[in-house]
Design brief:
Helix content: 40-55%
Number of helices: 16
Order of helices and strands: HHEHEHEHHHHEEEHEHEHEEHHEHHH
Strand order of the largest sheet: 7-6-8-5-9-11
Radius of gyration: 21 Å
Largest sheet: 6 strands, mixed
Shape: globular
Length: 373
């Protein structure tokens, strides 16, 4: 991760056509005109992710530095550490105006709010690249923020984990029926689908999940990416690592800010925050893409059995996921509109990718297996 390069990119102001000094002068001028608006702003950004998840913590530190640089020190963001289990409460505090901002993984933060879960990604939905296209170019983010505004929230995409692996298990899952009665630590919409398949999802923090897997209190854990899972040493307590993680192919993270606090910012401050957040969004996924393969190799070297879910099992899970999402859409006009938009992107996106990226990727994977790369 090259921090100077990312900061240099941001401070050029390329996306806005402004140099850093010009942006800072614009901020000074606008806040001076605003009358009641302060000429300096200080926010606290809560980071409910362990410091060991360096792809996230490093990018957020860079983001805060970039915002300060772009505004000539007038907009300062201080990062406060928090426990991952605090995400729902911190999110509520931001919406109520009691906190400035929090980075969240929607599957763990939004509880029963399906709109929020759609922000992060859905079972058998979009991969990280297509999800970003949906948010930005197909108005997905605009629709989501229109709905979340009622809760006092505004979402800014701020990193993606990409598709996860399919969970760490004490015993192999050979069919959809194999999920029945298994206790699995998992959050979000994936938990609802697994429940339809007869599993018993449980919500546990990372350390508690590791201990429960070790003692046999639970049968499996779905947590982060292989790179993150390695820091929990899940490979020491599981005999099988399944793939793919069909419950979320995007793994989108979001910087959640108070809608009123964001509206009160001078426009150059909003621009600085947008630029810095967009760069963190890019950097986090790049870090995971670079580090996950080595983490998988180390897991296999430790003795973990790497096993794919078979197509019949995935077909059954796909049917259950579609039924779960359709039921949620029928219960909410907002979810219905969002899901219809996402499904159109899924249909079009995978049509396009199978004609270009997927065909190219498949050939390159064949070469990888031939050990020619």
């Amino acid at each position: 991760m090259s921090r100077p390069t990312r900061r240099a990119l941001l401070t050029t102001g390329v996306a806005a056509g402004l140099s850093m000094p010009a942006l800072a002068r614009s901020a000074d001028a606008q806040t001076a005109k605003a009358g009641d608006a302060p000429t300096t702003v200080s926010w606290t950004l809560h980071r409910p992710f362990a410091r060991s998840r360096d792809a996230i913590s490093d990018a957020l530190a860079d983001m805060a530095t970039s915002v300060a640089t772009l505004t000539n020190g007038a907009f300062k963001i201080t990062i406060a550490e928090a426990d991952e289990a605090e995400q729902p409460q911190l999110l509520a505090d931001v919406g109520a105006g009691k906190a400035d901002a929090v980075l969240v993984e929607p599957a763990r933060a939004f509880g029963k709010n399906t709109v929020g879960h759609l922000l992060g990604g859905v079972p058998f939905g979009l991969n990280a690249r297509l999800h970003r296209a949906w948010l930005i170019d197909r108005r997905g983010l605009q629709l989501i923020n229109a709905a979340l505004g009622a809760n006092g929230l505004l979402a800014l995409p701020c990193g993606a984990l990409g598709a996860h692996m399919g969970g760490w298990f004490r015993q192999e899952v050979t069919s959809a029926a194999g999920f029945k009665d298994r206790k699995i630590a998992i959050d979000g919409l994936g938990a609802a689908v697994l429940q339809r398949l007869g599993a018993k999802p449980v919500t546990l923090g990372p350390d508690a999940a590791r201990r429960a897997l070790q003692t046999g209190e639970i049968d499996g854990v779905v947590w982060g990416t292989p790179y993150d899972d390695e820091s929990l040493r899940l490979y020491q307590n599981a005999s099988v690592l399944h793939y793919p993680g069909w419950w979320n192919g995007a793994g989108q993270l979001a910087l959640m800010v108070g809608a009123k606090k964001h509206a009160a910012l001078a426009d150059p401050f909003k621009l600085a925050l947008s630029l810095a957040t967009a760069e963190a969004d890019r950097a986090i996924l790049a870090r995971y893409d670079a580090q996950n393969p080595s983490a998988v190799r180390r897991a296999v070297a430790s003795g973990v059995d790497l096993q794919p879910y078979n197509e019949a099992m995935l077909d059954t899970a796909f049917t259950a996921a579609e039924a779960e999402m359709t039921a949620r859409a029928e219960a909410s006009p907002q979810v219905k509109e969002l899901l219809a938009s996402l499904r159109r992107m899924r249909r079009d996106g995978y049509l396009g990718q199978q004609l270009s990226e997927t065909t190219f990727d498949t050939y390159m994977m064949i070469q990888q297996r031939k050990q020619t790369l």
